[in-house]
User: Fold these one by one.
Assistant:
Number 1:
Amino acid sequence: MPTWFTVDTDDFRHLPKHQGHPTRSKEVYAGPSDTLSEAFLVGWKGLLDWMDLHEGALTLFVITDLFETKGFGELLASALERFPKRLTVACHGHTHRSWSAWGEDKAGFESMLTRSTERLKSHAGRAFRPYFRAPSGYIAPWMAASLASKGYIVDTSVNPSWLVKHKTGGTSWAAVCAAMEAAGVVERPWMTRWRLPVNGPALFRFPLSGLARKAWRKAPRLLKPEEERWVERHDVELCTLYCHVLDFARNNGTWTPPLAGHRAK
Ligand SMILES: [Zn+2]
């Protein structure tokens, strides 16, 4: 059971405390910004430098309004050129809206998927894979059929912990998984420990951070580039990990994921 390593491309402005959530956000979505944050640029460089220290495959979950921000399209193109066989590009929404926090809106969700997918295909070409991760993990059962209808074959939004059950639009993680299965979408839930979150923000939030780092150190080897399509197979079990581009900006751009054996070749 190898590890599927995934990275989300949120910049600061995408975070729910800024926009995209009905109660957590202080601002309404005002369109993409003109520039990437300094930390995003540092993190992007750190992520690619870390890629040089291992040989695994990695999927980038891209928020597509970034293509309207100066420089992002070029950054992605040059990363795909540098690691043509090891990077795949997937969908993390167009504006990072927390869909399930707003109630059912199939039409809105589907038109976002159409727009976002078009941009991913035109910028990432063959590196694009129809995989989805819900912004901030806000996923509900009604989203499954919409994903399938837009050609998505893998979802990786489920964080099967009681601590974040409220993100399922008033249902449960089991209901989300059942809806994905009924829609023919492979669900790749995130790794947990003792039913507690250990990915993304949990890596840095005390007291979860200690548990999370320990769990990451025990994670299996990364998928090899030629095994990337295993992600799409119902019969293959994987350990799914995720962090953010911005995480690679921590410690002055020297942070690397706390995996055993992937710090150096
Ligand atoms: Zn995100």
Note: Residues 3-253 form a domain with the TIM Barrel fold (CATH 3.20.20.370).
Number 2:
Amino acid sequence: MKDYLAAIKEAVIFGKHKEIEDLVGRAIEENVDLEAIINNGMIAAMDVVGEMFTESRIFVPEMLVSAMTMKKGLNLVKPLLKGKERRSKGTVMMCTVRGDIHDIGKNLVIMMLEGAGFDVIDLGVDLDVEKLIDQAERVRPQILGLSALLTTTMPEMKKVIEVLKEKGLRAKLKVMIGGAPVDSVFAKEIGADGYGKDTSDAVQLARSFVSKP
Ligand code: B12
């Protein structure tokens, strides 16, 4: 059998956006594990893309084409992960913080949370604290998930938590954070309820937040 994971990884690294759908489609038909397609194929590719960018072997346009290629592939996997669970486990609000437009990780977390039975409201990227608060007041979710991929946007997470406190919304809202530059130490420092390094952590955290003792 063709090594689909290696081929998918290569397609994302080199931005082969015309080939990705065919490859992912065929991998799905041949029952390649969906999480392996995401983790060992696409996410692994993005790590390589990040390294190539750091070494100035590629630049923003190439990084963008890789991201676009990954998104096209993910679109095929998404419907298959959705709706395994029927009864809502709770409502999660997700966004990438102000100043940051990276959304692949956030979108993956959303896909997995939905697959695990949560209702997720996606507030998008580069989100103003004011808009976030406005939505939190209206929707009253149980969980807020914040994503940041830039060291320069990490402080926005702290700001969100501070404003939630000021507005009296913090007590009833669990906050989880994630994204490459953040970790559990930072989460503790800013007063978040949890840090997740990947989608499984995100689902586990969300489950722990809504589980009744
Ligand atoms: C693709 C990409 C882009 C694309 C983004 C496209 C998009 N729609 O997302 C584009 C080209 C637009 C881009 C732009 C820039 N980028 Co960029 N980008 C990347 C790259 C290569 C991959 C990111 C990615 O998608 N990874 C795959 C996903 C699946 O991983 P993830 O996001 O980490 O998410 C996982 C976990 O972190 C976790 N998670 C994520 N969020 C959350 C949230 C919660 C609640 C939980 C629990 C878990 C969780 O779960 C996810 C699944 O496992 C990274 C390198 C890297 N390896 O991270 C650089 C990187 C993040 N970018 C970088 C930079 C510098 C930039 C630019 C400033 C470049 C420039 N000069 O313009 C701009 C900034 C634009 C902006 N204002 O945001 C740097 C950041 C350096 C730093 N320390 O701050 C990196 C690390 C590259 C590098 N090695 O230098 N980028």
Note: Residues 35 and 41 are 9 Å apart (CA to CA).
